């Protein structure tokens, strides 16, 4: 690849693409109502200043299905007690399935495959019909508004059906991926006391089968409120049910048995704007995960906005995000159907048998928007795969890079190895919003390594130590004004104590997200890493992303992790751990090469105090480097207090880091 510099312009939307963009249609709609805006930033200014006016316009533009008399678009109570569209009632599932009636009901709604199942499709009629049958059965069993229903299920159509059916009757959904160990699931679900559990008996990942009936026995034993367990026989080699439990066990097929219910004969339970939709959990690497509660109103509005204007999913388009059900990204897969398009599901290892897999699925489904992590792209690059040459990606319009900061080289690779006119956009958001904070827009140019803009309606800033907004300098990512998809509450935290302590303790009245970020003069941004994993070199803060950018360009290094800890007496210790590629060795000479690269490409402050070979880099189940747990280990914390093994993708590697830290303290 030709050398690329951070901030270098790589892409502009073509005139045809701009003319067909969802956001262009929205601007035209506003213009017809005597509200004219000159480009993205003019629109963004209005969306963050006239907040009720902006969100009310989305309510009308997307023709939200609701009943009741609107009292206030945005209540006057400050964050986190702000309420939205009070006096109205709606249902999330009703919006996801509304397009079943608007076209041929046999057209595809879901593409799906897994390591256990061949590629297949499900139509709008099939999914909608299954949702209505299951929802009706749930009502017959006495479930309804106020009840919690959880899924220990993979990313397959049955999970989508269960999720939509539970929400359709006004109950509250939550999910955990079956790769989560028993205690990780118990830590989550025990906080919300579910009445029903949907589960699979096992799954396959990377060619290996995992029977989960033993874990499920432990989980059910720790959930005394669970009256019903619905089992899906997903892994043929596993037992059909777990061991003895107090819940009544039903099969998935029995729950779906019944007469079809036409769309017009099914009534959704429309709920108020303070009614819990679902509970998402923080990653849970330390302590009990935070049970984050969202609302129907906030998510419907936020997901329409993000799907239409920041992902530009068009009618008939297909969204393919690689995700598990334990990550908030899974809850965004319905953006495709929400926009009268399709969603693509895959359950399994993203690079088994090699990293061509996701591109093959994208080709088969004719995906228009592909969401992957920069880590996956790094794997693709290391394997020498050129997707644009090997696969028919003519339908693919956008590649969204999510989960961690993306380097300029990753952006450039997308244009060279996929196709020149691809819209490669980095995104940064969070479980707290179940959406983005910093995202993209086709109205703006794409610059290498840079997130294009804050999302519409999102007044994001970088604050310095004096609580002042800064430009062209790193600061703490904050949000100054309310958004509808901010959490309603944490489950069981009715006094907002844990909520306020988590996000409002640093800057009273201002949301503190916990990321280090830099905004530049034209509005673009760079996320440098988590605040509590920020590298402090003798009082100067630097972001770990800067070091990773250099390390990713060194072919002998497969992966890396850097942390910085404060030493007694005011000193600092910054080790860099590297996982070497097969056949490569971390010699003293190679350490010097790494140090020289960091010194020349970054600065002397970026050179670590020590470069250490590690057998791997510990990561969460969603693929994020575990910088904070490693930092705490090196500061002397007990291994069991810094991370849950069940929430770690490679716990044996974390054990190695614990041993390393223990030896350092002896």
UniProtKB/TrEMBL annotation:
State a single Gene Ontology molecular function. ATP binding
Q: What is its EC number?
A: 6.2.1.1
Task: Write down the SUPFAM superfamilies for this protein, in alphabetical order.
Answer: Acetyl-CoA synthetase-like
Mind telling me what this protein is named? Acetyl-coenzyme A synthetase
Question: Domain AMP-dependent synthetase/ligase, which positions?
Answer: 106-482
Q: Which domain of life is it from?
A: Bacteria
Q: Name one GO biological process term.
A: lipid metabolic process
UniProt cross-references to NCBIfam families, sorted A to Z: ac_ac_CoA_syn (TIGR01217), PRK03584.1 (NF002937)
């Amino acid at each position: 690849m030709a050398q690329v510099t951070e901030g270098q312009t790589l892409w502009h939307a073509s005139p045809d693409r701009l003319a067909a963009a969802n956001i262009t249609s929205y601007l035209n709609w506003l213009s017809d109502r005597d509200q004219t805006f000159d480009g993205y930033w003019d629109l963004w200014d209005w969306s963050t200043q006239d907040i009720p006016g902006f969100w009310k316009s989305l309510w009308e533009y997307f023709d939200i299905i609701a009943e009741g008399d609107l009292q206030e678009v945005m209540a006057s109570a400050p964050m986190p007690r702000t309420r939205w569209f009070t006096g109205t009632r709606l249902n999330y599932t009703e919006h996801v399935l509304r397009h079943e009636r608007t076209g041929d009901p046999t057209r595809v709604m879901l593409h799906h495959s897994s390591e256990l199942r061949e590629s297949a499709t499900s139509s709008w009629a099939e999914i909608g019909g299954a949702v209505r049958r299951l929802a009706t059965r749930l009502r017959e069993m006495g479930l309804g508004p106020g009840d919690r229903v959880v899924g220990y299920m993979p990313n397959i159509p049955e999970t989508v059906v269960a999720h939509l059916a539970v929400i359709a009757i006004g109950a509250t959904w939550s999910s955990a991926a079956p790769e989560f160990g028993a205690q990780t699931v118990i830590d989550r679900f025990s906080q919300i006391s579910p009445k029903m559990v949907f589960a699979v008996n096992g799954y396959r990942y990377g060619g290996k089968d995992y029977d989960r009936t033993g874990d499920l026995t432990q989980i059910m034993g720790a959930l005394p409120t669970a009256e019903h367990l619905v089992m899906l026989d997903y892994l043929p080699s596993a037992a059909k049910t777990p061991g003895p439990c107090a819940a009544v066990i039903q099969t998935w097929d029995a729950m779906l048995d019944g007469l079809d219910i036409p769309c017009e004969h099914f009534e959704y339970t429309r709920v108020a704007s303070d009614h819990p939709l679902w509970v998402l959990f923080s990653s849970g690497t330390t302590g009990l995960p935070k049970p984050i509660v969202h609302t129907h109103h906030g998510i419907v509005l936020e997901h329409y906005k993000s799907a239409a204007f920041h992902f530009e999913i068009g009618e008939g388009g297909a969204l393919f995000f690689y995700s598990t059900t334990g990550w908030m990204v899974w809850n965004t897969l319905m953006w495709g159907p929400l926009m009268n398009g399709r969603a693509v599901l895959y359950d399994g290892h993203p690079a088994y048998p090699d990293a061509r897999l996701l591109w093959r699925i994208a080709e088969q489904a004719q995906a228009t928007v592909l969401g992957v992590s920069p880590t996956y792209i790094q794997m693709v690059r290391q394997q020498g795969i050129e997707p644009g040459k090997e696969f028919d990606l003519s339908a693919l319009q956008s590649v969204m890079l999510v989960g961690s900061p993306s380097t300029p080289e990753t952006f450039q690779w997308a244009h060279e190895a996929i196709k020149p006119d691809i819209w490669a956009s980095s995104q940064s958001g969070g479980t707290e919003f179940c959406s983005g904070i910093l995202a993209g827009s086709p109205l703006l140019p794409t610059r290498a390594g840079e997130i294009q803009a804050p999302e519409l309606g999102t007044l994001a800033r970088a604050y310095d130590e004096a609580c002042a907004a800064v430009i062209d300098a790193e600061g703490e990512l904050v949000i100054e004004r309310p958004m509808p998809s901010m959490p309603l509450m944490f489950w069981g935290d009715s006094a907002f104590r844990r909520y306020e302590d988590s996000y409002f303790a640093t800057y009273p009245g201002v949301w503190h997200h916990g990321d280090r970020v830099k905004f530049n003069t034209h509005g673009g941004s760079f996320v440098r890493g988590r605040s509590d994993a920020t590298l402090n070199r003798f009082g100067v803060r630097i972001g770990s992303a800067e070091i990773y950018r250099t390390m990713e360009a060194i072919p002998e290094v497969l992966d890396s992790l850097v942390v910085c800890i404060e030493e007694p007496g005011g000193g600092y210790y910054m080790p860099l751990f590297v996982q070497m590629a097969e056949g490569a060795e971390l010699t003293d000479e190679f350490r010097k090469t790494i140090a020289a690269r960091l010194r020349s490409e970054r600065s002397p402050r970026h050179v670590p105090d020590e470069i250490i070979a590690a057998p791997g880099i510990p990561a969460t189940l969603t693929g994020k480097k575990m910088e904070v747990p490693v930092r705490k280990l090196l500061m002397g914390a007990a291994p069991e207090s810094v991370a849950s093994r069940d929430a770690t993708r490679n716990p044996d590697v974390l054990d190695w880091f614990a041993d390393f830290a223990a030896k350092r303290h002896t």
